[in-house]
Amino acid sequence: MPAGPQPSDGSAQRDAMDAALIRLYRATHDRRRLEKLVERFRPLVRSIALRYAQGGEPLDDVMQVALLGLVKAIERYEPRSGAGFGAFARPTIDGEVKRHLRDHAWTMKIPRSGKELWIRVRDARREHPTATDEQRGELLV
């Protein structure tokens, strides 16, 4: 007797359909097929985004990041792995949103001018990696 729960016929058919659609998209890289896949999995993306939008980050922003995670999952999914696409995509999307929030969300209320200054400092560091802090400060004036 096989271990673990067996997928129902409906979920097995859905997984097979998802895998076929993903294979077709990846064979052609047709933008319309990608758009159809994105629409097909939008409810999954939205359910993940809603969990993280409660922390003050606008839902639209979180949705955009989650949709990017979906596209990355579509690009990396291997149907032969045995896992259905939804099971594969969920942690990929979740991780993309968490990474975005870690790197871009502010944990405390910072005035817009402070955020803009931080972005300018970050950009100066990237553009002039060998400059001293004093030289970078002159670039910001």
Keywords, please?
single chain; 74% helix; disordered N terminus; 141 residues; mainly alpha; 6 helices
Overall description:
The protein is mainly alpha-helical. The chain has helices spanning 9-28, 31-52, 59-76, 85-104, 112-127, 133-140. The relative contact order is 0.10. Mean pLDDT is 85; it is low at 1-5.
Overview in brief:
The chain has 141 residues and is mainly α. The chain has helices at residues 9-28, 31-52, 59-76, 85-104, 112-127, 133-140. It is built from 6 helices and no strands.
Largest sheet: none
Shape: elongated
Helix content: over 70%
Q: What's the total count of β strands?
A: 0
User: What is the succession of H and E elements?
Assistant: HHHHHH
**Residues in β-strands, percent:** under 5%
Task: List the uncertain runs.
Answer: 1-5
Category by helix and strand content: mainly alpha
Kindly provide the radius of gyration, computed on alpha-carbon positions and rounded to a whole number of angstroms.
21 Å
**Annotation field: number of helices:** 6
In whole angstroms, how far apart are the ends?
72 Å
Mean pLDDT: 85
